[in-house]
Amino acid sequence: MTRAALYCRLSREDEGLEGTAESESIQNQRSMLLAWADRLGCAVQGIYCDEDYSGADRDRPAFNRMIAAARAGQIDVILAKSQSRFTRDMELVEKYLHGLFPLWGVRFLALVDHVDTADPAGKKSRQIYGLMNEWYLEDLSANVRAVLTHKRRQGCSIASGALYGYRKDPACRGHLLPDEAAAPVVVRIFALALSGLGCAAIARRLNAEGIPSPAAAKALAQGKAPGPGLWSKATVHRMLTNRTYAGDLVQGRVERISWRSSKTRRLPEERWIVAPASQPPLVSRAVFDRVQALLAARARSGKPGAPHPLAGLVVCGLCGHLMEQTRSGYRPKNGLPTRYFRCRTARRSPAACCGQPYLPLAELEKLIAGRINALFEAAASLPPPPAKAPPPGAGAGQRLRQALARLYQDKAAGLLEEEEFSALRTELLARLRLTEAPQPSPENSRFPPDAPPDPLPPGRELAAALIEKIVVWPPDETGNRRLEVFWRV
């Protein structure tokens, strides 16, 4: 007996076409397909239902289970109310109806639009149905975007949840009301900023007092475990710069790349949609503007620069989280602050990482430079393989490459400044390109095949290529510090 799979689907885009309730429509589809399978004399292998999933969604759970069963040879025919119930994506029409199903020996039948993949003459009709369904989704996406943009400009909050400090107004859709629990926290954050505290100091104080972060508060409101979420400098900064807290609803910071994909991209600030005085403010305009002036003054006083070559590679041995570069207020005789790596979690909340691991930057650079030099020396000490007769001019290129390798050793050891290193590197590369000899092959080189290629990467890329991670532990009772380096080579 023919084994049949019944597929039912409904999404919000089809509510106006299918009925008043999704569950009722699914029940109707199931009833129709069961009766049809009985008339065809098929044995129902399974009923697969996806409710509240778009026809263009490729991650429908029941759909994917049905495809897996068809691939495994457990299904002979798939029955659906219409081709659009199966998919509205033209690529999936071609992939399955005209590609894989014939290879798997699976027949597809649609009740309403009389689709039958066993009929070769109906291929063009199926393709036309696929195009029409795809056009329908494109038009629907454009219409939805236009409506949402209009609502944003009117000052209606269209987010699924309310911004921290607010709750949704049950009497007016799109309107926000101050949240009795979170709004005082927002007001206090602005007050702390006015008192002169920076974003990191505010985050540490909130964590020390055990105030749930926005992520933790959301989880608690949903009846879930709050998790390890902590207040961070970035979270506080986002709140202090969000105009919504002054009453100007800000939306449209991101947009979906395409109706086909759920991926989003951030938009520049000039494209954000701001509705002035559309929501109840939590702080006055004067307070908000004063905080922006303080943040701008702090930004001007800083000296931003390129990230350290080891940034993102140093990990706390106690909690497993990244360590970040920071500096102390103490200035030694040279007038420069002491820089060091400190556990990011411990910086936010000392109770979350009790060991308070840290490591001075100069000490870390010295240790890593020594170990990198040891790697280079070990590679250079390897006996060379039997040499082949080099082509004319190959010796000059070999010497230049060795000079480049030594240059990197000196840079890693801190013997060269960045400007001096860049100038010497540029000169050596230019001389290397002028040589007419071909590049030496790995078997004729004294260095391993994964040595830095030409052009050699800068220090940050070199560190990422050599080092997987650096684990730092607090000093033991004798003051010795444990450091583990995990190499990629």
UniProtKB/TrEMBL annotation:
Q: What is the lineage of its organism?
A: Bacteria, Bacillati, Bacillota, Clostridia, Eubacteriales
Task: List, alphabetically, the Gene3D superfamilies matched.
Answer: Putative Large Serine Recombinase, Chain B, Domain 2 (3.90.1750.20), Resolvase, N-terminal catalytic domain (3.40.50.1390)
One Pfam annotation reads Zn_ribbon_recom
The protein here is known as DNA invertase Pin-like site-specific DNA recombinase
Residue ranges under compositional bias (Pro residues)? 449-458
MF-aspect GO terms: DNA binding; DNA strand exchange activity
Residues of the region (Disordered) are 436-459
> Domain Recombinase, which positions?
163-301
Sequence intervals crossing the membrane: none
Q: Which InterPro entries is this protein grouped with?
A: DNA_bind_recomb_sf (IPR038109), DNA_bind_recombinase_dom (IPR011109), Resolv_N (IPR006119), Resolvase-like_N_sf (IPR036162), SSR_resolvase (IPR050639), Zn_ribbon_recom_dom (IPR025827)
Domain spans labelled Resolvase/invertase-type recombinase catalytic: 3-155
